Amino acid sequence: MIYCIKRDISNFINKKIINIIILVATIIISLYYNNIHDKNLYINIVLNNTNEINNFLYIIYKLIYIGYLMYITYYIYTYDIKNNPEFIFLRISKKKRAFTKYISLLLINIIIHITNTIICVLFTKELNLYIITSILSAMLYHITIQSIFCTLLNYIKQYSILLTLIIYIIPIILSITISNKIYIICIEFIIILISYIINKNKILKLIEKESNV
Amino acid sequence: MIKVKNLTKKIGNEEVLKDININLNCGKIYGFVGRNGSGKSILFKTLCGFITPTEGEVKVNNIDIYKENTFPDSTRALIEKPNFIDDISGLENLKLLAKIQNTITEEEILKYLDLFELTKYKDKAFKKYSLGMKQKLGIIQVLMEDPKIIILDEPFNGLEEQSVNLLRNILLEEKKKNKLIVIASHIKEDIDILADEIYRIDGGKIIDHIIKEH
User: Fold this and answer.
1) Nearest chain B Cα distance for residue A106, angstroms
2) Does residue B141 share a domain with residue B165?
3) Residues B84, B113: contact at Cβ < 8 Å?
4) Mean pLDDT for all residues in chain B
5) Is pLDDT of A181 > 80?
6) Is there a single domain that holds both residue B7 and residue B65?
7) Last residue of a domain, which of B147, B163, B181?
């Protein structure tokens, strides 16, 4: 399991160009928003954790960010099918492999959010409980979106990115703000759990789809 | 034992494997010869359970791996170029792989590294390995856990003459241990020396089957 996770994270870090693009995008959005009076709102913008601002630049950033998360999810979920699947698949059960993918995605998510937080802290020179809560909330939300994407990927590969984007954008369009955070967290956990149960049985199907590309 | 019956694989409209029927038994080396793109790698991937056939079945030790939705037991393979974790050493890569099933010790890994003259480079990051060293490491990950079925796609690529001879001797030794060995190469001489039976493959079809007399 450790080998699989290390391999996933190493491959993610080696995706240098795509990581630099998101880093530059984060710095640009930071330069644009870091002067606003509400520092908490700025942090949530960088972490993609708010729908409160409908500024065009922010929408673009949100789309780049979700595109990045989807690409990384797709890449991590499928690269070892193209590159020496025999190293892992002949040694590990499908169930375990699906589980390690989830752990890898979780760890990658943590790396992404910590990097963004470091950028925020460098700009605001502030680190408090609110920021930490915001990171955790953003991480959970994005892992949920990634889990939905993984599940869609198993069923409708061609349209999965589009459907995930729609799911991601719905709250912005409807400007949904549900005050009960515990309720949202419970739903997110249930989504992650269901998507894992579906994915562990579907991983072979994905291999088949990949080999057809 | 591997039994392939009426195996056909279509990718899009193209038939990459056409009605393959082969029986591979333990204690023998089977060679697959064919040009690049003839379908050898895709056949090997199918034998490993990575590519679901459009038609037909693949039975490994009497288990239909696609019907049972599983990967073959005690099988190790090297298909196409080896791809380990770039930033850690060769030894660390092998140790991590061995930890998945935890059936061998570090000493056994070191023994194979020594055999393939990689001891000197065992602590060097994988990305700094030469093509031949990468290939040797890929072969070691196949052999180190003493599998019953060994599948090697172009194993001699990038190896110098001394290592080619060493690998040939190792494979002949493994055969004596009643193992099933499947090798593909586009160089016929490699196969001629080792194989008990040779399958010639072209355009995804077995066009010739030669049983050698010893």
Assistant:
1) 19
2) no
3) no
4) 88
5) no
6) yes
7) B147
